[in-house]
Amino acid sequence: MKRVLILVAVLALVAAACGGSSDDGDGGSSDTTQASSGGGIAAEGELIYSQTCAACHGADATGIDGLGKSLVDSAFVAANDDGEMIAFIKLGRPASHPDNTTGVDMPPKGGNPSLDDQDLADLVAYLRTLQ
């Protein structure tokens, strides 16, 4: 029963995170700046992260057990260039994928289908600041 309640709570968080738009005009309150390689703006990516990714990867990006892995000092993020990261986020990773170690689906675009290529570039720029 406890496991069902936790699952319901997690699904509610994911549903709440999926509806957010990345363009609210405030540009975030971070001191991060534009990423040089991919053209993304890290401050915008931080806002997208908080609205879309934090439900599974945590507000501080250190991961949530049984949901999303830590993105801080992530070997996976470091090993992939910006284009590869954008492609990965676009596609997501099903729980059945052999490289998925959480057993939980990572939905395409983190479950937020409204994210466009610039949003994803901004998100990747923010992820680079965590490395």
Question: What are the salient characteristics of this protein?
Answer:
131 residues, mainly alpha, Cytochrome Bc1 Complex, Chain D, domain 2, 0% strand, globular, disordered N terminus
Structural class: mainly alpha
* Global shape: globular
Any low-confidence stretches, pLDDT <50, length ≥5? Answer: 1-36
What's the level 1 CATH class?
Mainly Alpha
Enter the CATH topology name. Answer: Cytochrome Bc1 Complex, Chain D, domain 2
Output the number of helix runs.
Answer: 5
Please outline the major beta sheet: none
What radius of gyration results from the CA coordinates? 14 Å
How would you describe this protein?
It is a single chain. Residues 1-36 have low confidence and may be disordered. The chain has one domain (2-17, 29-129): Cytochrome Bc1 Complex, Chain D, domain 2. It has helices at 2-18, 42-57, 75-79, 82-91, 117-129. It starts with a helix and ends with a helix. With 131 residues, it is mostly helical. The longest helix has 17 residues, at 2-18.
Element layout with pairings:
Layout lengths: L1 H17 L23 H16 L17 H5 L2 H10 L25 H13 L2
Helix pairs in contact: 1-2, 2-5, 4-5
Task: Compose a concise summary of this entry.
By secondary structure, this protein is mostly helical. Helices cover 47% and strands 0% of the residues. It has a single domain, classed as Cytochrome Bc1 Complex, Chain D, domain 2 (Orthogonal Bundle), CATH 1.10.760.10.
